[in-house]
Amino acid sequence: MKSMRINNENSVLLVVDIQTRLSPAMHQPTPVIQANHALIQSARLMNIPVFASEHCAERIGPTVSDLRELLRDDEILAKRHFSCADDAVIMQKLQQLGKQQILVTGMEAHVCVLQTVMGLAGQGFEPVFVADATASRHPDNKALAIQRLRQAGVQVISTEMALFEWMGHADHPAFKEILKLIKSL
User: Fold this and answer.
1) Alpha helices for the chain (secondary structure H)
2) Residue 134 is part of a domain; what is its CATH number?
3) Residue 2 pLDDT > 90
4) Mean pLDDT of 139-153
5) Domain tally for the chain?
6) Taking a C-beta distance cutoff of 8 angstroms, is the pair 12, 170 a contact?
7) Which H or E run includes 134?
8) pTM of the entire predicted model
9) For the stretch 18-41, what's the b/e string if a residue is b when 16 or more beta carbons lie within 10 angstroms of its beta carbon?
10) Which pLDDT does position 162 carry in this prediction?
11) Average pLDDT over residues 34-45
12) Is the pLDDT score of 1 beyond 60?
């Protein structure tokens, strides 16, 4: 049965296409990058797998440096499809982990992120859309993506919701460090 709560033992973080030539065109990209930074750092503290996709990096550039410095080379996944779920290599990596909840963030909310979330759901995963960690060029497009995902039964959450659910309790060993990250948002 599908879990309604985010569980750190069953989660993966998938950061979609937050790239150097794409992010400046987004509506308010800085808080989105900060939210992703906090999510990646928190995932590291809790041993949650992290991947970042790069769409046509030769044209759109690599992952932005603030996030790239937190990622290993084997966590950067090249893609040409809009949806990560349509890429065989990305899907193989996700399936090998044996985890069901995929927290999805990135750019653009209504294109690659939306298509990834819908594709993951269609392949039996439990994708979760982290709204404040996504962006589109126009806020209306992000709002439409959120509306469509909710209508499809996808959970839409915030970065803080993800971090507190991942921890589960105030006695979590990473609580103090993650609380600092939350306060920095």
Assistant:
1) 29-45, 57-60, 65-68, 88-97, 114-122, 139-151, 159-167, 175-183
2) 3.40.50.850
3) no
4) 97
5) 1
6) no
7) strand 126-135
8) 0.97
9) bbeebbeebeebeebbbbbbbbbb
10) 97
11) 97
12) no
Range of the domain at 64: 8-183
Mean pLDDT, range 99-113, rounded to an integer: 98
| Confidence at residue 159, expressed as pLDDT on a 0 to 100 scale | 98
Report d(CA 85, CA 104) in Å as an integer: 12
In eight-state DSSP terms, residue 84 is: G
Torsion from C-alpha of 69, 77, 72, 44, nearest 10 degrees:
80
- List of residues 6+ apart from 127 with CB closer than 8 A: 101, 102, 103, 104, 116, 117, 120, 121, 154
Residue 88 token pair: 């065989």
What is the rounded distance in angstroms from the CA atom of residue 31 to the CA atom of residue 66? 12
Structure tokens at 31: 């808080």
57 belongs to a structural domain: yes
